[in-house]
Amino acid sequence: MILISHRGNTSGRIPHLENDHDYIKNAIHLGYEVEIDVWYKNGFWLGHDNPEHETTIDFLLTNADKLWCHAKNIEAMVEMKKEKDINCFWHQNDDITLTSKGYIWTYPGKQPIQSSIAVMPELYNDNLTNCIGICSDHVEDYK
Question: 94 is in which domain, residue-wise?
Answer without folding.
Answer: 2-142
